[in-house]
Amino acid sequence: MMTGRFTALLLLLSLIAACKPTPPSVGAASSGTSGKPSVYVVNYPLRYYAERIGGDLIDVHFPAPADEDPAFWTPSDEVVSALQQASVILMNGATYSKWADKVTLPTAKVVDTSASFASSYIVTKSDVTHSHGPGGDHSHSGTAFTTWIDFTQAISQAKAVHGALVKLLPVSATGLDANLAKLSEELRVLDERLKTLGQRMKGEPVVASHPVYQYFARRYGINLQAVLWEPETVPDEKAMADLQAILAKHAAKWMIWEGDPAAESVAKLQAIGVQSLVFSPSGNVPEKGDFMSVMQANVAALEKAFP
Ligand SMILES: [Zn+2]
Q1: Ligand 1 mean position to 141 CA, how many Å?
Q2: Which of 31, 135, 149, 240 could form a disulfide with 216 if both were Cys (CB 3.0 to 4.6 A apart)?
């Protein structure tokens, strides 16, 4: 009896040992533990497109931290090795990920989602450097990279994401096509609304808190000049003087902010006859809602300001 029980216990113990998970093999499958293709993205708009188009068929990874501008983020060595194992790496293009030149990525897996409109990138000349967040000093000179707030460019980028996913999942092409069509239509409606708004504004001057609206201004005919402010920083005397210098020749009544401005900033602007509204490019994950709801709120804020 005792022996029988002992044998049973031994058997049980050996079974438990056999069930111990095996460590993941290094340098193996690109598909991760789920068996789904692993899709790495460098900003939130691309994450959103990949999720809308690929849905449950893919694992989307957006490795930039929530409190950093992904445009000025540099991946750690761990992230770089994860990228090397990815099924596909979706880049924004337009010099968005400057770190990409300094690391070795599997070229065949890298997709530049803005390549189709590379000939119409906007190049700016300004060498003022500044910093926001932990990314250190940076400059906005060179190629403008906030490509997706021209919604025709956003559609092109979504198409590039779709193309990459169809290559990974050819048997699912029909579903991927349908998801792209739905997303493109929503982006097209935003484009239509902004085109109408741009016509209504008739070149009325506006100011922006940061130089990230180049493609938006070009596509929708918005007469826009930018300062180098941050939503969470209240403009000091120097900053207000910079703005006043712009306003002397560019009599804007509205400032477009990248994020919710501090109440004190709003009051300071109001005192000189400038109202505030938010148009968030949403390069990173929004606190509330998703890419589409943020863009809809952006467009609605502009429509309200310029009825
Ligand atoms: Zn900046």
Answers
A1: 10
A2: 149
